[in-house]
Amino acid sequence: MKKEIAKGIYSVGVSDWNIRNFHGYLTKLGSSYNSYLVVDDKITLIDTVKAPFAEELLDRISEIVEPEKIDYLICNHVEMDHSGSMPKVMERAKNATIITTATAQKELALHYDTSSWKYQIVKSGDSIKIGQHTYDFVLTPMVHWPDNMVTYNEEEKILFSNDAFGQHIAHSEIFADELPMDYVLQQAKMYYANIVMPYSTQVISALTTASKLDIKMIAPSHGMVFRKDLDKILSLYDKWSHCRVNKKAVIVYDSMWHSTEKMAESIAKAFEDKGYCFKIFDLKQNHISEVMTDCLDAEYICVGSPTLNKNILPTVASFLTYLQGLITKGRKGILFGSYGWAGLNMKYMQRYFDESYIETVLTINDNFVPTENRLKEITNIVKEKI
Ligand code: FEO
């Protein structure tokens, strides 16, 4: 994946072709850990890669310059998919100075033996001239951890954005425009929904700062580099971070004997009649991270489960746990399901909705099997509420 993305600036990161589970996120396309090497009279490495790929990173660097010659290592983020190879790099680049945030310095010491590492600590607004290049630093705490920052190269107008604007795609190409743009943006959407969404307030703040920079290229630490049509990814981040939803409903459920499934279809009919676009997900067939991607721009999230043993089906509990951790304010919800002798499903699901700040506009809980007439009635009840 070594490639010169601008004069003297090389992509030296690695693709992780076979990773399929990234902390619960189904990464069907694998991922990449992007690292960038800047070569002029000083050598700078921007971020590293996950630990198992350290030798591959060092090999890629060695094709351009001996790793021992690295003068500076910019650490934008401590999470181990980006810092995991720092110990191996620092073993080789013994004289390198790490440029990072004060928070990151503390966190790195909680991950690795950093006793011999030299640091230059930066804060927002700081600039450092290294060789022919000037780097501006903007702290972006909680996009994705407290330590995060982004680095802007003034001469080439490149924003090294780390997790922000990433996509989980393993790739041999470098630039987003080498692939169909819709494909890349769909992966960026999945990434935002499953990783970045809880930090949307901080994203808004970071975008405000970024809007003051003249950015010609966005080089994230996962997936493709954006060098064309930057307005597309920037406007999507603006939309997603401000929770600008579409006229859309996500209807997600699991069912034991098809009652909850039939109710899901009745609810979908209501949205169809009212001109909404909608998607139905049976959690036996769909992964929670794919459902989450559609929740990102949905006005309504409708969740259904029957009662099972004083509780709900584990597939739905898993989804609700995941949803609760990720979703931001601004969505409406419907809870639905069926029960035999104890309608405890609603109580359980309501707690998740309340803690997810989803405004519950309707709950529908039917005893055993809804009749055809009842299913039509459910459609009408939902139509009156939405
Ligand atoms: Fe890609 Fe927060 O690490």
For the largest beta sheet, what order do the strands appear in spatially? 1-2-7-8-9-10-11
Please outline the major beta sheet.
Answer: 7 strands, mixed
Beta-sheet strand percentage?
25-35%
The total count of helices amounts to: 12
Bound molecules: MU-OXO-diiron
Query: How many distinct beta strands?
Result: 23
Helix content: 25-40%
Q: Which class of the largest domain in CATH terms?
A: Alpha Beta
Structural class designation: alpha/beta
Shape: elongated
Radius of gyration from CA coordinates: 24 Å
Could you tell me the CATH topology label of the largest domain.
Answer: Metallo-beta-lactamase, Chain A
Describe the structure.
This protein is of the alpha/beta class and 386 residues long. It has two domains: 3-241, 4-Layer Sandwich (Metallo-beta-lactamase, Chain A); 246-385, 3-Layer(aba) Sandwich (Rossmann fold), CATH 3.40.50. The chain is built from twelve helices and 23 strands. It has helices at 54-62, 80-83, 86-92, 102-109, 181-196, 200-210, 230-241, 259-273, 288-295, 314-326, 345-355, 372-385, and strands spanning 3-6, 9-11, 14-16, 21-22, 25-26, 31-33, 36-39, 43-46, 72-74, 97-100, 118-121, 127-130, 133-139, 149-153, 158-162, 217-220, 246-253, 277-282, 298-304, 307-308, 311-312, 332-339, 359-367. The strands form six sheets. A seven-stranded mixed β-sheet has the order 1-2-7-8-9-10-11. Strands 12-13-14-15-16 form a five-stranded mixed β-sheet, with no helix packed on it. A hairpin with a 2-residue loop joins strand 4 and strand 5. It is elongated, with a radius of gyration of 24 Å. The termini are far apart. 47% of the residues are buried. The chain binds MU-OXO-diiron. MU-OXO-diiron is lined by residues 77, 79, 81-82, 144-145, 163, 221-222.
